[in-house]
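Fold this sequence, please.
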Amino acid sequence: MAGPQFNAEFDPRYGELVDVSPMLRRMVCKNPSMFTFHGTGTYVIGHGDIAIVDPGPRDQAHIEALLQALDGERVRHILITHTHGDHSPASAAIADATGAPVLGYGPHPSHAGSEGSNTDDDDDDHDDADDADDDNPGTAADPSGGYGSDDPDFAEKHRVDTEFDPEAPLRHGDVIEGPGYTIEALHTPGHISNHLCFALEEENAVLSGDHVMGWSTTIIPPPDGDVAAYLESLQVLIDRPQDQRLYPTHGGHIADHHRYVEALLAHRLAREAGILNQLQGRPMSAKEMVLELYANVAKHLHKPAARSVVAHLRKLHDEGRAAPSVADASTTSSKTVWELN
C-alpha cells in the first residue's frame, strides 16, 4: 500500500467562524507552528444550541473572537480531545463565560509532557522542537530551534493543561446529546493517553483531534505516547464503516479517510519493520538508526525522527522483541543502544 498522501493546502481565515459542513463551523486560532500547522481549529457543532470542541490555547484574542462570534447562541457542552496546550486551556475561560460543562477523558497524565518537551538526554543538541513531524516533508520545522512560531509567548500560552479537571469524565462509547446533535466519545490513546475523538452521528463524521491529521503524521512522544495504543486506536476508526469524513483539529478535512487511516497504519508498521531490520545487523541506538532510516529526510529533522524511533523501540521492548543492551538503561533516550531479544 502507498504511504499516506498528505495535504498541506489550508486557508485558516483567522478569527472567522467558517461553515465547513451543515452542522459544523470552525474558527482557527492564530497560533501557527511546527506542531499546530496553521493553528488550532476550534469546532462548533450545531446552531443555536451548540457544542464546542477544543477551545484552544491560552490566547485571549481567540477566546474573545470565539465568544463574540457565538453571541446569542447557547453553549451546551465544551468537549476536549486531549490536554496538550493548544487544545484545552481556553476551556476554562469559555466555561466561565457561558456556564457550559467541560467534558473530557480526564486530567493531564502525570508523566506526559508537551508535544515539544524533551525527555531525551542529548544536552549537546537540546531545543524545544524535539517532536516535530518526522515523515512529512511539507512541515516547516525551524532549524534554529523553538516552536517555529514568531510569537515570543508561544511556549507559555501552550503549556500543557495540568489544571484541566472535566466536570464529567468521558469513556469510550459515552454519548453526549444536545438539541439536534448526538456525539459519541471514542477513546483513542497513542498521541497521549487521554485522547478522545468525537463522532457526530448526524453527519457520519469524526472530529479526530490530533489522532489523525491530514497534513502530517501524528507525534507519539514517549513516555506517555504509546505506539501500540496508537495502532489500536487507528483500527478503531477503520472499524467504523458508518463514518465518512474526518475533521482534525489542525488543517482541513479528510475524505475517504478509511483508506487514508489504513495507509497511516501501514506506514507505522513499515517503520517498525525497518527498525527490526537495522537491529538484525548489530546493536544500535535510535540516533544511529535515523542515519539509515531517514537518509532522505532533512538533517534538522533527524533528532525528532530519533524520538519516533524511540517510541517504536519502547513498543518492541514491551513485546519482548528488543531491549537496551545495558541493563537499566533509559528507554526514552535516543542514545541508548538496543539489541534484539
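The longest strand covers residues 181-187. The mean pLDDT is 89.
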